[in-house]
Specification:
Length: 141
């Protein structure tokens, strides 16, 4: 799922980078998939102890720029298939455009705006048809 970009700490021992390009990093939660074993058990226990209110998605995509220490979450996924779909969309629709920018701040502003636009479009598509049609009235029963 696409996420409203939020700043994150990347230097985190709980994540493993699986794919990267000059603008994005796809990470897997350490211990998820590929057997898990003791590491998976420890990370799972740590997640429960540190944040019992939310389950951490096992995959995420971060936006980065070369000279910045700041990273932004842009997507998360519960499966490799879901996160790969988002990764491929970013590669197919943004990479070429981002390479044109000269200023890293402009790149980040553009990416954040694009992600917010995707989220707004998805939310609009989730609304019932009668809520989207201007001038329509809802019947109360």
């Amino acid at each position: 799922m696409w996420l409203g970009p939020e700043e994150v700490l990347v230097a985190n021992a709980l994540w493993v980078t699986e794919r990267a390009n000059p603008f994005f990093v796809l990470q897997r939660r350490r211990g998820h998939g590929r057997g898990g074993g003791l590491t998976g058990l420890l990370v799972g226990t740590l997640d429960v102890v540190l944040d019992s209110s939310a389950r951490v998605a096992p995959y995420r995509i971060l936006h980065q720029t070369q000279d910045s220490q700041v990273y932004w979450t842009v997507a998360c996924g519960s499966s490799r298939k879901e996160i790969t779909k988002h990764w491929e969309w970013l590669e197919n629709n943004l990479l070429q455009t981002l390479s044109i920018f000269d200023n890293e701040e402009d790149i980040t502003t553009f990416v954040k705006g694009k992600i917010h636009g995707i989220i707004a479009e998805e939310n609009k598509n989730l609304q019932p048809q009668e809520m989207r049609t201007p001038g329509s009235s809802r019947k109360l029963s």
